[in-house]
Amino acid sequence: MAASLAQVRARISAACRAAGRPADEVTLIAITKTFPASDIRVLSSLGVRDVGENRDQEAAPKAAASADLRDRLTWHFVGQLQTNKVTSVVRYADVIHSVDRPRLVAALGAAARKAGRTVTCLVQVSLDDDAGRGGATAADVPFIADAVAREEGLELGGVMAVAPQGADPLAAFRRLAGVAARVRAAHPGATIISAGMSGDLEAAISAGATHVRVGTALLGGRPGFVR
Ligand SMILES: *Cc1c(COP(=O)(O)O)cnc(C)c1O
Question: What's the 31 CA to ligand 1 centre distance in angstroms?
Fold first, then answer.
């Protein structure tokens, strides 16, 4: 794991150098889905400060098992989110990357206020307008961003996207950067661009990503796992 982490960090540094950006501008989020909580412990001991999960059923017990690491870890929720899971998710998630509809904004706000927490939310942007994979259309993003910004208990952090399958990731991430700029024009604090995974983090960093979400390149393949 130490060797994989060093490789991923080297890829991030090289991509930042190529883009003329300081390496500390990009945060590595270790996506630990399908791997045990003990791996989160190892990653933390290696200096990883951000971890991400995509299913509440798996994330909630892993967060509970890692409770003693609470002060050292920022928890990201990156999967599609149903409103009936928000009460659980706001208990451990610091950043939710997958906010893509007004009803979810209202439910998250109510849950966060009830839990006495402030949760950072990113608006997930669909870059291929395939609703099945989650995300709002670019046209709907400003409206959802405004709703998050207005909602007590939530803080608008920025935007997130997954590159469309089979398309040029760089072109897709550049479109995301355009959407991010429009959001930032209305909400100057919304500076996060969450984009890039094991296979396309260089393209994402070149297009301005501030956060990359890396699973496979850190922890290996997920046998039998379908995203
Ligand atoms: C699984 C997942 C990742 C990590 O993907 P890898 O290709 O394993 O690096 C990133 N983002 C989201 C939303 C994911 O579900």
Answer: 6
The alpha carbon of 50 and the centre of ligand 1 are apart by a number of angstroms equal to 14
Q: What is the pTM of this model?
A: 0.97
Q: Which of 5, 29, 54 to mutate to test the pocket of ligand 1 (most atoms within 8 A of CB)?
A: 54
Instruction: Tell me what the mean pLDDT of segment 155-163 comes to.
Output: 97
Domain 2-219: top CATH class? alpha beta
Q: How confident is the model at residue 166 (pLDDT cuts 50, 70, 90)?
A: confident
Domains of the chain: which residue ranges?
A: 2-219
Closest CA to 215 of 15, 11, 28: 28
In the chain, count of helices (H) and strands (E)? 9, 8
